[in-house]
Amino acid sequence: xxxxxxxxxxxxxxxxxxxxxxxxxxxxxxxxxxxxxxxxxxxxxxxxxxxxxxxxxxxxxxxxxxxxxxxxxxxxxxxxxxxxxxxxxxxxxxxxxxxxxxxxxxxxxxxxxxxxxxxxxxxxxxxxxxxxxxxxxxxxxxxxxxxxxxxxxxxxxxxxxxxxxxxxxxxxxxxxxxxxxxxxxxxxxxxxxxxxxxxxxxxxxxxxxxxxxxxxxxxxxxxxxxxxxxxxxxxxxxxxxxxxxxxxxxxxxxxxxxxxxxxxxxxxxxxxxxxxxxxxxxxxxxxxxxxxxxxxxxxxxxxxxxxxxxxxxxxxxxxxxxxxxxxxxx
Amino acid sequence: xxxxxxxxxxxxxxxxxxxxxxxxxxxxxxxxxxxxxxxxxxxxxxxxxxxxxxxxxxxxxxxxxxxxxxxxxxxxxxxxxxxxxxxxxxxxxxxxxxxxxxxxxxxxxxxxxxxxxxxxxxxxxxxxxxxxxxxxxxxxxxxxxxxxxxxxxxxxxxxxxxxxxxxxxxxxxxxxxxxxxxxxxxxxxxxxxxxxxxxxxxxxxxxxxxxxxxxxxxxxxxxxxxxxxxxxxxxxxxxxxxxxxxxxxxxxxxxxxxxxxxxxxxxxxxxxxxxxxxxxxxxxxxxxxxxxxxxxxxxxxxxxxxxxxxxxxxxxxxxxxxxxxxxxxxxxxxxxxxxxxxxxxxxxx
Lengths: 330, 349
Known about the structure:
The complex is a heterodimer. Chain A is mainly α. Chain A is 73% helix and 3% strand. Mean pLDDT of chain B is 84; it is low at 336-349. The radius of gyration of chain B is 22 Å and the shape is globular. Chain B starts with a helix and ends with a helix. Chain B has a domain at 51-273.
């Protein structure tokens, strides 16, 4: 039986199928594996960051810092690989540790200072972007044979599509994200926290460690997204990925996750990312539409999904009023 | 807190002290900071410059203070600035006068504010989400108006709004001061300010008390849209062109920062527009320190982050509770909020 909580996810899926059908009817070549492979490669960093954002939004919070953290990671890697003889793998581990600790620190501030996540992560956004600027204001190219090796890793489809490492990494991140959200204690706590902080507190959930964990995951995944972005562009630039946090939030919402927290699916975010990528691909295929249409269409989709969520919430409340005592399942 | 004269002063005292400190640092790094010349019929000087450059954020934070006082937030002001600037530029390029252009820009801003207000007040969408829609789509709309170009214009009247002087004082300074005075007068000499605070503290009970919170909320977002439009027109006039991509980029964050530095709680309720305006001046003074001292401008963001952190610590309910405990003498009854984290950890183990 389809529950009302599954409805946003189903609408997202239907939107994706419909959008793809429309695109394919206009440009049959969009069905080729080459386009599918590029869809995965081009949105890899955004997708990985959006997994972290899904957890944050599921818990009822928001993380505005991820765009800056991605830029910081890129610059950090570029500067470290240029100035030291450190192996990229060691640098990856180091930067992941830094970004995870950074996220955890923001989570700790949110929990212990009892301040809104919005303003704490805003400070984090300034701090990470500032740190990237301080490291280097110029675009630093990355030339390392290990990078060439990683970029050369792909599985070539017979019809010419190249499924690259970073696209695979995104899919893997989503799979792990789905498992963590639905099959672990941590995931349960995230949903409980988003469903109602007061209730979660009364049920004795470890609020402190969950909040810190959520933002640590978001920071760590933003770091991973930064690594992927540096593989994608072979450079680190402190002005890159401005506004990616908004794209990630939009993907999560289009993916059917309730912005007030508590309801939603990591898998929905995956289709949210694909829908946004599809819009961009369509505009590239069309050639006459300007790129700003992407923003307008995404804004429109965002609006449509928010209104849909609102309608569902109303419907649920109305039903609850008529049949008292029947609590909604999560 | 606000009301009689001395309590207004008490309310803005911390902001004044921070501003004085920021200006003092300016004086240290640049001894001629307070010099003001009168040349070619215009006042020149670093202090004038700070007042002038603070204009966009100061204008934005007037509307933002009201929005935040209702427990809301308006993320779209940067995008609305771009839309309003683009509209004015497009109207003036078509050969209309500057008054028409200004009115068209303000009209566009009013429409944006109305859209936000309806989403928040009628559809009851969280403010941060409702205004996110326009923040994402707004720049696209602005680019639609300018057709992807930077629209330049040479209409004297419109340029005068951003780069002109009236009686020796740059116009933007006069505009933001007049706007601030007007809004403060309106909200404090009528019951409006109190009603707005009531909505921020508890919307439901304010409605039960007979406040038409729906109309008032729409009006607050409308005012924020109008302020953003005014700031957008001034920024466009200043550079004699409308840049849909960069006009007002990230200024929403500066405006929110100014309101927070002004000591207004993000959780709504009591507000002081005067303190927010001083907050805008503090941000500009800090920018000025960085520019004058020759520090790389990259440090600007780091310093802003540290400023936010400091304010967070000061505003935090937990810290204020600790301060209260320190001040109070003798054993106090333990409120049940303080020891929670510890017990939760114990329960979890």
